[in-house]
């Protein structure tokens, strides 16, 4: 709200405000060239058509909400104040506000005034394709009813009480010196706690001095890209299909990524050898997005390749979330001198914490620590110390057991919904993780079209092709951890409706096309082959 409006609201308590309004009125009557009406949104009643002032005012307010001039949470002027400023009846302003309330954009809150509570959805029509590096960010920003995007845990389960208690205890024990610059490698307490956590949960024996605290796996990959480039490594092999975000992180670090096929046994190590790459990024414990585990034979081959001079970057992004299979040893535990190990609490607590860890071979440790120092001087110390206390107290293990049960129930809900609403889909990776991959083998449509049609109906999902380099069958990646069982059921039912509707005149494909309109991806109304199959990776 502008300062002039604040003055108007205070007018009943400040006699001078009446004089000011009178002065402004006389200046307008004398032909001032300034805008007539209120300074609020620079409203000029002279622009309103005769007999259509209410429509005009409601339209101006609605446009201001839509373009963000009046963001969600902002308060509109009191109706009597705006009416006085515009020199119209209070009933006209009240009617305009009521029209916005009827469409759910504003809400009256008694003495709290009238507040903007929702922006209208963007106008329908083609959306410009985002830059390749912003596909996931663009999708994340789009409004929806149900979000089945992968990679997000149950954020409602965040242990707020335990976090607050730990934070109070940490603050009570800090000295003034503890609020200064910390060690860029990470707080010693957290590095020790991470070493203990990895020993208990991943079978990794590491000294605290080997741990570098980072702002999530994304920063770990960025630091490694910088260090590897300085070491003369310019090409890194990546899984195909594999994480689009991880691949982009390496490419942003000016490394060339070389796709290597993933099958039912994990990364094709023979293909890795043939690629000529000196380093490889992979997710061996729960491959993203297929959910397969790197099997014993492939592990031996991979470690043999690494022992001969290769470097493995192990992204252990959600290995804690297991339901129907035994834990898989981390590669770092088997060959620490050739494996960089990255992990975080993004899938266990919340991505917003931006807390993770990186273990590298001794020859790279000083370079990685220096890169971290010059990147940001280290992560915020208070959050590090709180996480260390949660790890040391056993609270984080208790939280893990709690969310495993919740995630399992939601996984089961999604499997039931897929069997009912998408029986033609083949389901992959149900034994662990926070997402399922479904494929439509032999189908004649593009998965970007299905994802776009679903988004038009209010449901988000990742098309599998986003995470592929080489061609493959269409599919979707569906996250189940962040939504309730009811939302999962409704979301999958919506996907089934989009598919069985033939996507006629619905959004089309293209790697950046969410959404594109006017393309029939099922011109002959063919249905994918029937028969649901679940692959438990």
Describe this structure in words.
It is a single chain. The chain is of the alpha/beta class and 537 residues long. 40% of the residues lie in helices and 12% in strands. The protein has 17 helices and 17 strands. The chain has helices at residues 3-9, 15-29, 53-66, 79-86, 90-102, 135-141, 160-173, 188-202, 216-230, 244-252, 269-275, 296-307, 362-376, 381-393, 395-421, 447-456, 485-500; strands at residues 106-108, 114-116, 146-147, 211-214, 235-240, 256-263, 266-267, 279-282, 311-315, 339-344, 356-359, 426-428, 435-439, 459-460, 462-463, 475-479, 533-535. The strands form 4 sheets. Strands 4-11-10-9-8-5-6-7 form an 8-stranded mixed sheet, sandwiched between helices. Strands 15-16-13-12-17 form a 5-stranded mixed sheet. Helix 7 (160-173) crosses helix 14, helix 9 (216-230) crosses helix 13 and helix 15 packs parallel to helix 17. The longest helix has 27 residues, at 395-421. It starts with a helix and ends with a strand. Mean pLDDT is 84; it is low at 1-37, 122-132 and 504-536.
């Amino acid at each position: 709200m502008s300062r002039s409006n604040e003055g108007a609201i205070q007018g009943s308590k400040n006699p001078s405000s009446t004089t000011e309004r009178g002065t402004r009125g006389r200046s307008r009557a004398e032909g001032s060239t300034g805008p007539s009406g209120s300074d609020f949104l620079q409203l000029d009643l002279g622009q309103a058509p005769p007999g259509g002032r209410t429509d005009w005012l409601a339209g101006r307010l609605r446009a201001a909400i839509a373009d963000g001039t009046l963001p969600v949470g902002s308060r509109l002027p009191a109706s009597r104040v705006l009416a006085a400023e515009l020199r119209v009846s209070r009933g006209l302003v009240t009617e305009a506000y009521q029209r916005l309330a009827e469409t759910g954009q504003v809400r009256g809150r008694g003495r709290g005034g009238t507040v903007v509570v929702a922006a209208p959805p963007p106008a329908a029509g083609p959306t410009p394709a985002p830059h390749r590096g912003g596909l996931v960010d663009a999708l994340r920003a789009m409004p929806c009813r149900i979000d089945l995007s992968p990679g997000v845990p149950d954020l409602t389960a965040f242990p707020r009480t335990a976090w607050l208690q730990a934070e109070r205890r940490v603050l009570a024990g800090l000295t003034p010196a503890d609020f200064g610059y910390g060690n860029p490698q990470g707080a010693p307490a957290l590095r020790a706690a991470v070493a203990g956590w990895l020993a208990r949960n991943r079978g990794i024996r590491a000294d605290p001095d080997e741990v570098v605290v980072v702002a999530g796996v994304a920063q770990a990959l960025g630091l490694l890209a910088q260090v590897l480039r300085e070491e003369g490594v310019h090409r890194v092999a990546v899984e195909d299909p594999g994480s689009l975000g991880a691949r982009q992180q390496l490419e942003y670090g000016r490394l060339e990524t070389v796709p290597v096929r993933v099958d039912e046994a994990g990364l094709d190590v023979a293909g890795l050898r043939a690629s000529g790459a000196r380093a490889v990024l992979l997710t061996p414990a729960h491959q993203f997005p297929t959910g397969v585990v790197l099997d014993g034979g492939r592990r031996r081959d991979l470690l043999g390749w690494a022992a001969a001079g290769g470097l493995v970057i192990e992204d252990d992004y959600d290995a804690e979330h297991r339901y129907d299979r035994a834990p898989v040893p981390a590669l770092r535990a088997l060959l620490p001198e050739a494996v960089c190990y990255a992990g975080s609490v993004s899938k266990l607590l919340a991505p917003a914490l931006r807390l993770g860890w990186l273990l590298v071979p001794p020859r790279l440790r000083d370079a990685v620590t220096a890169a971290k120092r010059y990147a940001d001087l280290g992560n915020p110390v208070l959050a590090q110390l709180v996480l260390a206390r949660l790890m040391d107290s056993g609270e984080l293990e208790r939280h893990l057991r709690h969310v495993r049960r919740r995630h399992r129930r939601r996984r089961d809900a999604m499997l039931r919904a897929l069997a009912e609403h998408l029986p033609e889909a083949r389901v992959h990776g149900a034994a662990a993780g926070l997402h399922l991959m479904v494929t439509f083998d032999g189908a004649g449509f593009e998965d970007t079209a299905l994802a776009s049609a679903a988004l038009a109906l209010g449901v988000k999902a990742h098309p599998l092709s986003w995470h592929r380099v080489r061609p493959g069958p269409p599919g979707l990646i569906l996250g189940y951890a962040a939504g309730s069982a009811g939302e999962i059921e409704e979301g999958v039912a919506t996907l089934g409706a989009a598919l069985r509707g033939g996507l006629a005149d619905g959004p089309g494909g293209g790697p950046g096309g969410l959404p594109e309109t006017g393309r029939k991806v099922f011109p002959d109304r063919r249905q994918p082959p029937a028969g649901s199959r679940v692959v438990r990776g």
